[in-house]
User: Which sequence fits this backbone?
């Protein structure tokens, strides 16, 4: 029933790589969309897929629709790169507050921003919020005291430090959201990274989450019994999970969907494997496990799936961003089977371009960043390094440099 999914027999070995707690497409913590999963730690709730038809015809329709989506994702959905923009607004001091420098989902976009800043003539300072709103608040105050011209919120939401950010804005500091939700009610950001015509939250739910759901429907012939991790500490990560759940319920009448709740403390306390194993034990019919962040697979979910498969089960395990450790597992045949690649380094460059446009008084533009489905038979165009965009988008760095410098 699981087309192309092999039984995995090897446990995940020690991965000598610092891995992300939060993903490149998913900011850590937010006041964004809420999940329908139970709020109690580690709990599991099951929901049958809603029916949009009956019998073989509705199932066939679901698979056909999913296959078309997956085929497009295999080709990649990057759009055209920007072709024009303001010259570099040099001499700026920019502070990048990273959600957690120990997480590639936070550190890689920051690295991209710093690399771009060198070509813009900026002094970029990266500081670590350490997944702690109080630390983020203090770093914002420090940036203002250091006479920063702008603060970039990398992967953490406005809701972590609304008072400090409002004070910074009042002091004339520009605020830019890089993979970050603005404050609800009263927006504070001067600009945000754009993903086509959609908001960041819409992009996560309607493209990232829905794309993962399409892959699941395709590879299970619309008969998936799906177990999803719901990260209840993070709105953006939650948005991906919500997108998966919504798409499964709307488009897969033959599927079932259940979830188990995970908090940041569960991750820090190394409880992901036990929580996943417990949820798998409760539902022996689960044949799909989905994680809204790649790092969770590396930090315990993958081990739980490997353990379950050692007992004779066959499970499709899906991730998100396509970071190097996950791509190596996919290439090896598991336990990770799929990523919906999102270019974290490019996102940092695009944010620098967006902030340069703010300094110049120019409007924001779509960076062209899309997605790409990656599995064993459809490897990343970036090889086994961090996914960095569709093949046709390679060279985006030089494209920005030409816009900024004319060279």
Assistant:
């Amino acid at each position: 029933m699981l087309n192309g999914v092999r039984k995995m027999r090897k446990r995940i070995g020690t991965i000598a790589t610092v891995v992300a707690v939060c993903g490149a497409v998913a900011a850590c913590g937010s006041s964004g969309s809420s999940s329908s999963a139970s709020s109690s730690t580690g709990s599991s709730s099951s929901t049958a897929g809603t029916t949009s038809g009956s019998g073989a015809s509705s199932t066939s329709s679901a698979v056909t629709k999913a296959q078309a989506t997956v085929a497009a994702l295999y080709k990649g959905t990057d759009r055209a790169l920007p072709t024009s923009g303001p010259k570099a607004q040099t001499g700026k001091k920019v502070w990048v507050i990273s959600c957690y420098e120990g997480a590639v989902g936070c550190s890689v976009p920051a690295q991209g921003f710093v690399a771009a800043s060198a070509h813009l003539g900026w002094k970029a300072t990266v500081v670590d919020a350490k997944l702690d709103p109080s630390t983020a608040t203090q770093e914002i105050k420090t940036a203002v005291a250091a006479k920063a011209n702008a603060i970039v919120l990398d992967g953490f939401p406005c809701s972590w430090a609304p008072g400090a950010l409002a004070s910074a804005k009042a002091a004339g500091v520009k605020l830019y959201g890089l993979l970050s939700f603005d404050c609800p009610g009263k927006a504070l950001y001067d600009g945000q990274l754009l993903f086509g015509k959609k908001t960041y939250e819409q992009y996560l739910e309607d493209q990232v989450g829905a794309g993962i759901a399409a892959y699941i429907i395709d590879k299970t012939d619309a008969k998936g019994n799906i177990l999803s991790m719901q990260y209840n500490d993070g709105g953006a990560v939650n948005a991906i999970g919500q997108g998966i759940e919504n798409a499964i319920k709307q488009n897969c009448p033959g599927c079932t969907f259940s979830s188990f709740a995970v908090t940041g403390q569960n991750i820090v306390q190394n409880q992901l494997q036990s929580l996943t194993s417990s949820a798998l034990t409760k539902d022996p019919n689960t044949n799909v496990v989905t994680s809204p962040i790649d790092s969770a697979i590396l930090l315990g979910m993958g081990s739980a799936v490997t353990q379950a498969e050692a007992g004779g089960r066959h499970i499709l395990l899906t991730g998100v961003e396509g970071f190097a450790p996950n791509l190596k597992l996919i290439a090896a045949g598991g336990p990770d089977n799929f990523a919906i690649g999102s270019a974290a380094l490019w996102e940092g460059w695009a944010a620098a371009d967006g902030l340069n446009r703010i300094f110049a008084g120019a409007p924001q533009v779509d960076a062209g960043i899309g997605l790409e489905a990656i599995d064993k038979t459809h490897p990343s165009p970036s090889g086994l390094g961090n996914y960095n965009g569709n093949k046709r988008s390679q060279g985006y760095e030089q494209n920005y440099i030409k816009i900024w410098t004319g060279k």
Q: What stands out?
A: The CA atoms of residues 69 and 211 lie 7 Å apart. The longest strand covers residues 225-231. The domain at 17-77+194-407 is CATH 3.40.50.2300 (Rossmann fold). Confidence is low (pLDDT under 50) at residues 1-21, 30-53.
